[in-house]
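Subgroup meeting minutes
Present: P.N., E.W., G.H.
Scribe: E.W.

1. P.N. recapped why we're keeping a running log of single-chain structure predictions: easier to compare across weeks, and new members can see raw inputs and outputs side by side.
2. G.H. added today's entry (140 aa).
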Amino acid sequence: MADDILIETYGRSWAFPPDFSATHGVIMAEGEEAVRQSLMVLFLTEPGERVMREDYGSGMNDFMFENITDDLMARIRSRIEESVLRYEPRADITAIALAPAPDDYSRLKVQITWRLLGSDITQKVESLMPIYSGQSLRLR
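Output recorded in log:
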């Protein structure tokens, strides 16, 4: 019952990455998992990649190869907040923590805590953002 309410409220979408099954066809993400995967797609997409929504994306690649400073971390935090506010209305960011990775100072540890809008369900996702390798933010 609770799962049905989550699915009805937060929707269903193709799983990311897309997956197919011989018995079920397209594998779908539902409820809070659909929102989590939508955030993952948002952070991996660069503006201009989508033909019909050219401004969609977070533009995290803009920060590649920069020196890790407090200013850089503030700009990344701001970009994450702006992207989610603009493109993912089902999520409400409650906290963003950024810090250099303890074992590799060329990567930033990014931890995002968010709440499903209209509920008490909170999730935390984290990733290492490799600033010097040219890769974008990949959530786990």
